[in-house]
């Protein structure tokens, strides 16, 4: 028996069958070989972001042994909480609206500064901030290029943001070791403009749930967030006060799965 002839005939039959199957699948073959082109859909995301706020107050601190609290507590720090919503209107850009509360406390720490004849002060500031920012994603939300994205979410998406808003605040200050309360530096509550500038990294757990550590520098048009104004000029922020916020956003996309809003899928 000619085994070579049988093997050759069997291989020919298999090749003809495979060709027939591929012909029947038609466009489905191209579907699996070509990149998936995802159609963008605008989405709404709500978020809450607790964190820490640090201020650049008039308190300069002291390099000697009298400096007990350190630069953060001396300049003013405390908790902050923000809530808001983000409208993602393109693959790269979104608009954020945010409402935040800040509680800043500074501790007097340094000895008397001879060149301005002023002490550090203890101060307390409560503020409410409302702002709107433009967000730009530095990479795609989904794996792949901007034109041929896959179905898989990208785990890390860095972004930057810039915006403008207002901050309404009240402040009081004193020198506790001397028992002196400072008078109000301006009429409280007072309102100032604020310009947040910063960025963060989205950690996409699912289409609905995202965690985003974020850092913002908030420039203001007031010098009275600590209820004092000695004319001190920061080399970074100038005469007016500014504050730094470090928060962690917990974000939920409310348009990812309308039929089942509590399903978590990547």
Structure description:
- This protein is mainly β.
- The chain has two domains: 1-34; 40-253, Porin.
- It is built from three helices and eleven strands, in the order ααβαββββββββββ.
- It has helices spanning 3-25, 27-33, 71-75, and strands at 43-55, 77-88, 93-106, 122-137, 142-144, 149-153, 156-175, 180-181, 190-204, 209-220, 242-253.
- The strands form two sheets. Strands 1-2-3-4-7-9-10-11 form an eight-stranded antiparallel barrel. A two-stranded antiparallel ribbon has the order 5-6.
- Strand 2 and strand 3 (93-106) form a beta hairpin.
- The chain is elongated, with a radius of gyration of 29 Å.
């Amino acid at each position: 028996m000619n085994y070579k002839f049988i093997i050759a005939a069997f291989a020919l039959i298999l090749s003809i069958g495979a060709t027939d199957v591929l012909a029947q699948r038609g466009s489905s073959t191209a579907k699996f070989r070509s990149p998936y082109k995802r159609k963008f859909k605008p989405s709404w995301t709500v978020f809450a972001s607790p964190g820490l706020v640090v201020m650049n107050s008039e308190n300069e601190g002291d390099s000697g042994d009298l400096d007990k609290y350190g630069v953060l507590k001396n300049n003013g720090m405390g908790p902050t909480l923000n809530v808001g919503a983000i409208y993602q209107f393109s693959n790269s850009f979104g608009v954020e609206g945010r409402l935040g509360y800040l509680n800043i406390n500074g501790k007097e720490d340094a000895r008397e500064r001879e060149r301005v004849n002023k002490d550090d002060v203890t101060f307390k500031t409560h503020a409410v901030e409302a702002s709107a920012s433009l967000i730009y994603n530095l990479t795609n939300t989904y794996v792949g290029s901007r034109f041929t994205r896959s179905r898989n979410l990208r785990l890390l998406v860095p972004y930057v943001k810039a915006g403008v808003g207002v901050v309404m605040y009240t402040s009081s200050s004193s020198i506790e070791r001397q028992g002196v309360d400072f008078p109000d530096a301006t009429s409280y509550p007072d309102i100032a403009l604020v310009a947040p500038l910063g960025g963060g990294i989205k950690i996409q757990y699912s289409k609905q749930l995202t965690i985003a550590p974020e850092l913002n520098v908030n420039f203001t048009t007031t010098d009275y967030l600590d209820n004092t104004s000695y004319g001190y000029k920061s080399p970074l922020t100038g005469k007016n006060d500014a504050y730094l916020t470090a928060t962690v956003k917990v974000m939920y996309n409310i348009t990812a799965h309308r039929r089942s809003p509590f399903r978590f899928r990547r």
